[in-house]
């Protein structure tokens, strides 16, 4: 149940409507809007605090459309955060984005396994492992760093850490505020619990 009721779009200031419209256009790029989750409940919740919404979405925009990571790599990280933090909203929204990035439903489901299995290629397994390390210890382990540094450039390594940290924070906010999954997300709610 929502602890902060999402603002209806009719309640948003014209400035916020324009800002969020530009944000969504940047995130969508060339893909049709109807293939992406609308995020109405999340955006409506953020709309209750426009200054925070603009600051957060500006930064988050980098992770979604300006990151040096590929879409698939980004979604591996975010879905692992969602699984570990048991954030249904984040899981559902990013399961859709993972499919758009070319991941199969079987791969998406495997992200939630307690321990990444050997079916993952080394780089993917390292992304899942780094997420676990950052969420549990707040630091990338030496062995994981060595594996990642052999695969990724410096800016990508930075984007990895910031992606995990940002989506961990977002999972906390979504769960704490009681943001309910939108109807378009319900078919993607986690099956891993």
UniProtKB/TrEMBL annotation:
GO terms for molecular function: peroxiredoxin activity. InterPro entries: AhpD-like, CMD-like. Residues 50-131 form the Carboxymuconolactone decarboxylase-like domain. It comes from the Bacteria. This is Carboxymuconolactone decarboxylase-like domain-containing protein. The lineage of its organism: Bacteria, Bacillati, Actinomycetota, Actinomycetes, Mycobacteriales.
